[in-house]
Write a structure and sequence with these properties.
Zincin-like, three-stranded mixed β-sheet, two-stranded antiparallel ribbon, about 45% helix, elongated
Amino acid sequence: MSAYRDGDKTVVLVPATFSRAEEKRWVGRMLERLDARDERRRPGDDALRARALDLAARYLDRRARPASVRWVDNQQARWGSCTPEDRSIRISRRLAGMPSWVVDYVLVHELVHLVIPHHGPEFWELVRRYPKAERARGYLEGVSAAPRLDAGGSGEVEEDDDDVVGE
């Protein structure tokens, strides 16, 4: 027996000799196991908020105090977003499988928006307090460029010094 995710579908393989009752019982068990594995691989909103608070303490002198920090599935063109008015931060779930220092960079970027809502020089000065900021930006630029390169694009990547690529 095995189970795996294939895009938006879940595939569960059970022996053909199973009765309907056995099949139903084992499919339920396998789905529970997959869900538990997915949860271990993808920290929840509470863990993400704790991580953001730690980063704010380490790099922003606790100046950024988010009211909420959560993973979202509806951001396909952005890595994260922030609404300074209600102090909410949303992080694209596309980041969940990326290195932690990349996720931390996006969190720091969004946390800085709680202090400085625009992308002026003082904004970038605060973002650069995160030691891997430039490395993480390069990583995200590469991730953003890869689909265009695979599709036979020109290979040129537009530069945007005012924002996180894909944000």
